[in-house]
Each structure stands twice: as C-alpha cells, then as structure tokens.
Specification:
Layout: E1 16-18, E2 24-26, E3 29-34, E4 41-46, E5 52-56, E6 61-65, E7 71-76, E8 85-90, E9 96-100, E10 104-108, E11 116-120, E12 130-140, E13 143-152, E14 155-164, E15 169-176, E16 180-186, E17 192-198, E18 201-207, E19 213-219, E20 224-230, E21 235-240, E22 249-254, E23 260-266, E24 274-283, E25 286-295, E26 298-306, E27 312-318, E28 326-332, E29 339-349, E30 355-363, E31 379-384, E32 389-394, E33 402-406, E34 412-417, E35 422-424, E36 431-439, E37 442-451
C-alpha cells in the first residue's frame, strides 16, 4: 500500500470534514499520535493484524501503533549514520524490514528489537567514490520497490531497485541520467509511474505489469512537482509554482500518451502569499490534495478535494490541531473506505524545541454529486447548538415527506415525517451526521451536519 510521502519537502494539512453543499467543518478526529523525538513521518505501513508502522526521519526512530492509534513501542532501529528511515514493513514471518535514506537495510523482530544490518543498496565498498540516496519507496507483494540516485566517479545514475523481504535479496539497475528522482506509485494493475525533475521541466515514465515501458516523455511544465499518483484512467501530478517568497498550488491531469488533459492553479489571496501542494491520492472517487497556505513561516494546513474532471468538491483550511503544521502522508485505511491517515511534522516539540512526527486518523465523508440532488428548491439549514435544535428554512411551496439522520456508517439514527421548520436533536450524541430530505424516491437535499 502506497503512502504518498515527499521526503524533500514539507506540506501542511489538517484533520478535516466538510459539508456536501460546499460549506466547511473542521473534522471529526478518530485518533491522533505524536512521536517523542524530533523528526517527521516518512511512511506508514499497515501490518497483517492492522497495526501501523511509522517510519520517521529522526534518530532512525520507528513507531508501532495498534489499530486504535495507541503506541505499542517506539525504537531507534539502528545505530547508524543515517537516522532517516524511508519505510518500515513486515515480512511473512512477522519480522520487520527497515530501509534508510542512504540505502541501508536493517532487520528487526516484531518488537523492533535485535537489529541486524542486512545490506547497503546505494553504497558499494568495492567501488570508489560511490554514494547515493533513496528518493521514494513503496511496498507490494513482499517487495520494497525503491527509486533513487547514486553518484559513481562523478557520474550521476538513476537507481531503480527491488528488495525482497522474504529472501532479503536486493536487485537494482542503473541509468546514466541528469534527471532527479522525485516520486513513484503503483496501481492495482501493477503499473508503475515515476516522476523525475529534468532540467527546466519534468519527465514522466509509466511501466506496465511486465516492466514494459508504456510512456516515457518530457513534460513541458516548469512547476515543482512533488507527487504523482494514478487516477481512474489517467495520471495526476501535484506541486507548486514558486518558492518561499511566493507560490501557487498546481495540479495536472495527464493522459497515458503524455498529453495534458487539464490543469488547475490555486491562488493565495489576502495576507497569504503561498499555497503548496506536496502530496495527494485518488481515494473514493476524489482527488485529495494536501498542502500548506500562509505567509513566511506562518503556515496553516490546506486540503482540497477535486472530482476526476478537476472540479472543486470541497476545500479546508484549519490550524486547529497543534501537531498538524506540516504533513506528508495521505493513506486510505484498508477495509475502511471512509478513513484516511494523515502524517507529517508537527508544531508540538521535544525538550530541545524540535518538531516531532505525528499521525492522525479521521473520517473522509462521501461527497454527494449534484446529479443525485434535486435543485428546484431553496433549502437552508441553521443550527442552534446551544438549544440542540436544527432549523430548516425552505421555499413556501416546497413539498417533502421525510427528513432522515444517518451516522457515518450509513445507519439511520432518527427520522422525521412531514414538514418541519425545526428539528430537535437533543439526545443525539455529538458528532458528524448525514442529513437527507426526500420527496418519495427523490432526494431534495443531502448534506453533512455537525451536532455539538
């Protein structure tokens, strides 16, 4: 399972939920976790029993959480020069395999103990003046696929490799290239996509299931792309246009022949002068982009959801959680289509004042499309949280026969028959609910509400 992590850039995101009619709500948090040492979240891997392994950039620290987000342990997996762990995964025997930024591989038991050095993929002591780094890595079918760069005798090479966690054997190939590796992803059809920085532009490579090259082209785009991921029948790129002094967020939809299908630019306004997008994924029919918005070092989290055609479904700006300052992880939780994990580097610091890694789990609501909602009537919802009342204001001629309230799992919580101008929500627990107003089999309004 791929988490879109960009190790060379930071992005900010909040835990969020939004109303389906475009209004925003700050989110319903499942749980939150903050590490105990400086660093940021690199990647998160879900084990066979649904535990979460969090690789981080500091002190070679790896954390293991249970499915409820409770810490089982946090350990430094090696006493090594490189404290940046790119990815930590589980092999079939239950042992853990850890890959560091400079290509070192370590093996530990399930509790993170008894660390053993296995190999160094980027380094080779038999070759003089060789060094390198891993830009991105992902895990599928017991194989860590890695994407990086090495320099041998002053010549730059792209590194594409595989490490089998069952046999503990590594294979790799080198390509002389001045392009810099950025991001890669794999879809359910075992197609792999790579994005590389080429001088002044970008290069995208798509491989088929048998490693055949389906696309290898230079894209004439000047922006700094940070993440690449698959859509239903296309590819998506997320990034930014500028630098620290000013930037817009950018997203591209790319076809399998390399053509640009559409692009969107997100402009800051008012006091803000920067929007960054440094990660994204295609989850439950939505393009989810995660980034930062603000000025200088005063950055808030920013998240946007788009339809596959690039239309904005919702957006969120929030700084409500101290830990959620910079993030670099978006992961759909297996078996829970409405849950998303967000991780990165937070504002909460260690004793030395350095930021610590964090991880959130929160609910991602299904966004209702306009095709499922009648728009021939004006309806407005006005909450009165102090009185536990929800007011329904609508056109005098509107006819409807039922109002229903559902929880996030789709379970009916309460139903009201006939016309109502006020709904009594006392006795209903605090949380997010789906409100649906119907006329026969027709949906007049479908909207998320928050019960304080």
């Amino acid at each position: 399972m791929k988490i879109n992590l960009k190790q060379t850039a930071l992005m900010a995101i909040s835990v969020f939920l939004v109303l389906c009619n475009g209004a925003e709500l700050s989110g319903q948090l499942g749980w939150e976790f903050a590490g105990d040492v400086a660093g940021q979240t690199s990647k998160v891997f879900e084990t066979q029993n649904a535990d979460l392994l969090i690789a981080t950039t500091g002190n070679s620290r790896v954390y293991r959480l249970n499915p409820n987000g409770e810490l089982l342990w946090g350990r430094d997996i090696c006493n090594c020069n490189d404290g940046w762990v790119v990815i930590s995964v589980e092999n079939p025997s239950g042992d853990l395999v850890h890959l560091t930024k400079n290509g070192q591989v370590y093996l530990t038991d399930a509790d993170g103990l008894n660390s053993r050095f296995v190999t160094n993929i980027t380094g080779d002591t038999s070759v003089n003046s060789r060094f390198g780094y891993i830009a991105d890595a992902l895990f599928k079918d017991n194989v860590i696929q890695l994407f990086g760069e090495v320099e041998i005798g002053g010549v730059d090479y792209l590194l594409r490799g595989k490490f089998d966690v069952s046999t503990l054997l590594a294979t790799y190939e080198l390509e002389i290239s001045s392009d810099a590796p950025v991001s890669m992803n794999i879809n359910d059809q075992n197609q792999r996509i790579e994005y590389l920085d080429s001088p002044g532009t970008g290069r995208i490579v798509v491989y088929g299931p048998e490693e055949e090259i389906m696309l290898d082209t230079i894209l004439n785009i000047p922006e700094r792309i940070a993440d690449v991921f698959f859509g239903p029948d296309n590819l998506f790129l997320a990034g930014r246009t500028g630098d620290f002094n000013g930037s817009e967020g950018i997203v591209y939809s790319i076809g399998y022949t390399g053509e640009i299908i559409w692009s969107r630019v997100f402009y800051p306004s008012g006091f803000d002068n920067k929007i960054y997008f440094f990660g994204g994924d295609f989850i439950d029919g939505q393009i989810i982009l995660a980034g930062s918005i603000g000025r200088g070092f005063d950055m808030d989290s920013y998240a946007v959801s788009l339809s596959p055609e690039g239309e904005t479904l919702w957006s969120d700006r929030s700084a409500m959680f101290d830990e959620g300052n910079y993030a670099n992880t978006v992961l759909a939780v297996s078996g829970q289509n409405n849950c998303v994990l967000i991780g990165g580097q937070g504002n909460v610091t260690d004793v030395g004042g350095r930021a610590r890694p964090f991880l959130y789990k929160f609910m991602l609501p299904t966004v209702a499309t306009t095709s499922s909602i009648l728009v021939d009537a004006e309806i407005k919802i006005y909450p009165n949280p102090n009185a536990g009342t929800l007011y329904v204001d609508h056109d005098p001629g509107l006819q409807y026969d039922a109002i229903r309230l559902y929880d996030l799992n789709g379970v009916l919580i309460k139903a009201f028959s006939g016309l109502h101008s006020a709904l009594d929500l006392r006795g209903i627990a605090t949380g997010m609910y789906g409100l649906q107003i119907t006329r026969g089999d027709e949906i007049v309004l479908s909207q998320w509400i928050w019960r304080n």
